[in-house]
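Help!! Second protein's tokens look totally different from the first
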Amino acid sequence: MAKSESSGDTGRPWQSYHTVYTNAKAGMEGVDKEKVQRIVYEMSKGSKYFENEERKEAYIKQKIENMQDQIAKLTDADISHYQKVADKRILELEATRDLTRIWLHVDMDAFYAAVETLSNPSLNGKPMAVGSMSMISTANYEARRFGVRAAMPGFIARKLCPELIFVPVDFKKYTHYSDLTRKVFQNYDPNFMAASLDEAYLDITNACYERDATGGEIAEELRKSVYEETGLTCSAGVGPNRLLAKVCSDINKPNGQFVLPNDRMAVMAFISSLPIRKIGGIGKVTEHLLRDAFGIATCEEMLQNSGFLCALFSRSSADFFLSVGLGLGRTDAPEVKLRKSISNERTFSATDDEAFLYQKLADLAEMLSVDMKKEGLCGRTLTLKLKTASFEVRTRAVTLQKYIFSSEDILKHASKLLKAELPISLRLIAASMGYWSVCSLLTDQITELWNFKF
């Protein structure tokens, strides 16, 4: 088993400083990565965020070392046993391969930024980010060429791109355009899965059959329809399952598409050199763990190290990794299930201004209430998540005696949870509601109230 060693250059400490800010996104090809890393490092050093990242890096390093110790303790007999376990499991997983469905993943191109440019054409061609000096929600492709990206503090983005224009977030506007795109999606799959405001999964198997069209032709037609309906471009990926379709949609962004045939050989060839970070569900920690403890950088290497993965990970985790190596993903239409919770959050510059914090809480209470009314739900368990100025995450929750749905009731109980933490300096507040009650009478009452109000 190959093992990757990660070493930092003490003369260039930024080379080993990896955060979400330094991960590449579509449109960032050709960016001077070392320059971005250096600026992010220099402007973050000494901050609470930097200290938190160092703590996380230390945690990841310790986890990798523990994993390496476990690998070293495996005997030849252990390795032989777990390889047999892995080989058997690979055959079982292979037997589940379904090449009968055609899935399409559609992803709007720099959605928030594109909507703002559509609303204000003078922004066209200029580097622009949606957000503020404290945090960016997204950046257009002109800004990405400088290394500017989503989830980056605006002051760092401005350092990378001095000409960067900031536009405030307007979720009402984005929701409007998202609704327009979804009207188009319904023409191809009435049961499409919305992953967020700007992306969705569609099972286009029936659409292909009914229209006597290929997956690529359907993708082309859908993208054209979205543009005609909204004036916005999108990218699409077509593949035999949702996991692969999502990967494919990123290949020819922006305003492009990629089709992976429903053929096992084509899938295995495609997946062989695919970096593991391209796979949804493999984040920074897992990527580092697989790379530095097992030497796994591509999906194909999952299978090459299958015995070790089965030896050191749980059955479910090992199955996921092996499925990735085989290019397997979900092809079934998910069952309609009651959501476990509804949540909303707001990020802002760190502050201990209590009036400001309570106002943010009031905004969240209103948003939660709106979402609950739309779905005809009342909840009993209210949870508040707080991220402090030092990036410590605190959680408080309460289960109420009665079900609630109004913003007034949500705010009343959320305020009590927040008050218990004051005084405190926060940079994020999230509120969620769960433990639902759903009945026809309740739903009718909520619908009447909702219709009356609007």
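Here's the second one for comparison:
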Amino acid sequence: MAAAASSIVGNNILSRLLDRHNRWPFGGLAELLHNSADADASLVSVGTFPTPVGADPFHPHFALDISDDGKGMDHGDMVRMMRIGADESIGRKDKRGKIGGYGVGFKAGSLATAHTAVVLSSCLEKRTVSVGLLSNEPYEERHERPHVGLVATQSMDTAMVDEETTTVEGRDRILDLIAKINPCLTRERIALWSGQMHGKSGTTVYLCGVRRNPDLPGRMIYEFVNERNGGDGGRSAGEPVGGEYGRGDDDKDVADMPDLRLLAPGASDRDMMFDEFPGRYDDQNAPMDYSLRAYLGLMFKSRTPKIRLFGADVAQRDLAAELVYRRRVDLDLDLDVGVGSDSAIRGDVGLHPPSEKRGLSGAMLYCENVLVSSYARQEFEIPPDERRLGVLLVVDLPKSTSESRTVHDRGFKPKDNKLGFDWAGKKRFRRKLRAEFLAYEDWADAERDR
């Protein structure tokens, strides 16, 4: 019989990993939702465990709960996801259309948000239930080596361990460690989850020890909003960094809904927190910068998967459909691919009134349906101009299959943290996008004069 899969890494490698890959607080949560989308989930729910929204999020037993109804993971999938540096998409029959696969997403995303991730996954195809533990808590609390990649698997039908991968002792060790880190995640609680998932596939991630240090980049300073009509719950260390809601049409779906909002008690914190936020445009902030609900509404270009935040459905938006004076543009540089081809790269450019009110403009770049870069201007050398306020170019780019940094195929390579692209080898595309963006002004003026 094999022991439960596990590995231990030295010193503070996990802390260094998370600081390198996720400086934006919501970026960590985004990584987990990307994984759910890659698992073909139709519904992803973000909630709290075991306390309701409004309880103290800094209580040691508090956890964020991210659950989906995707394909689930068997033992091998779970081990690959937990292993440092492993390609998280290895073992999938078809990686096309998947945003993941860099080997850092789950680890960096989880630990940017909390010190421990407990993963429960039910795989109907293999009829197994697996439990995994990824924790930097030993290092952060006692300067001991962290627990990385501890995985145990048992039968969905008999609850007996899978003798090819797991021993009873190995499973017991993992369950004891989980209960030590969060006493609310007991054996009984995990057994209850397994029973509820019998005959189903899906994955739940509990993020324990939510980060709250305002002196370190990438740590959350936030409040929970748990009542409609603006009722606030949880800690309130300052004003929402975006100011009051209700200043534009893009706020109407988030103003009075349960939410997780970032706070900036002081100017120095504000500057620090917005250093790499995707919505940053000079001194202007978009709702997605500080409202998790607003960000989730734009995360996927299509409305799949459906997202539920703290019990209330997220209004997922189609930015291209919201554009006025919209123009379809061809961004493909391959002469063999015509505009009418299904594989051509096409985008939409137009005026977005809510963005105009906030002084925002630029390119909204998706990759395989996932938002990677928003309000992008500098990488395309688009100078600020009042005539361009509110102009957005929305496009979904194919992901590159190249293993090298310089991409010469028709695909594009997101950075490891998926908050931007590596543009090496894409100079012509950047020029093409810039030209289409700037040409829109004359086209829109002509349309208005008709």
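Reply: Different proteins will give different token patterns, so don't panic. Residues 319-449 form one domain.
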